[in-house]
Design goal:
The chain is mainly alpha-helical. It folds into two domains: 6-54, Arc Repressor Mutant, subunit A (Orthogonal Bundle); 68-192. Helices cover 70% and strands 0% of the residues. It has helices at residues 6-11, 14-33, 36-43, 47-53, 57-74, 86-103, 105-115, 118-121, 130-144, 153-172, 183-192.
Length: 196
């Protein structure tokens, strides 16, 4: 869904057009501002076509979140950070999250809104599958061996992924968060907070 030009949008299938339009509307108007009418107009498809693919706006929002989350987690499939020691694992997660956010800022901002909404609470089951399940197991192992603080997963998320998202926002807003130190130094400092 990384769209570069109007001609690329025209070549998308209808479902992809609905996704791209929804992400754009959410960027401008938030999750609540994304209506079927606005999505239909921006995607240049009839509301009937939207209802052919989705029963509700909520279903569109959830489907986009699932697709973005799977896309993000796929960046860990090759050369998985899970094989690294816990500190290096989280450092790689942080750096890859930052790079993903710079490459896909609209998707990153969509997911940030999604995570801070009532929509996320309805989709918690997705978090205990695949990569994240293995990461939870790695955390438990590192905690039991005394390598990592026994922190709730939400705290670990806030300390790592959450700060990566904040650095993405700074960067896409034209600020230079790595002007006086390197990304590696920032990732080191953030991830060292997890260690015992």
């Amino acid at each position: 869904m990384n769209i570069q030009s109007i001609s690329e949008v025209r070549s998308l299938n209808k479902k992809e057009k609905i996704f791209v339009a929804t992400i754009e509307i959410v960027k401008e108007d938030g999750l609540e501002g994304a209506t079927i009418s606005k999505i239909s107009k921006l995607a240049k498809v009839s509301p009937g076509i939207i209802y052919h693919y989705f029963n509700t706006k909520d279903e569109i929002i959830h489907s986009i979140a699932v697709e973005i989350r799977e896309e993000f987690l796929s960046i860990y499939d090759e050369d998985s950070p899970l094989v690294l020691p816990i500190f290096d694992c989280y450092k790689q997660i942080w750096i890859r999250m930052y790079h993903y956010g710079i490459k896909e800022p609209e998707k990153m901002l969509f997911m940030e809104q999604y995570r801070n909404s009532s929509y996320e609470k309805a989709a918690e089951t997705i978090q205990n599958t695949g990569f994240l399940k293995k990461l939870h197991e790695k955390n438990r192992d590192a905690i039991s061996k005394g390598h990592m603080k026994n922190l709730p997963m939400l705290a670990i998320y806030a300390m790592t992924i959450g700060t990566a998202i904040e650095f993405v926002k700074l960067t896409i807003n034209g600020l230079k968060p790595f002007e006086k130190c390197s990304m590696e130094e920032v990732a080191d400092s953030i991830c060292s907070g997890l260690l015992k």
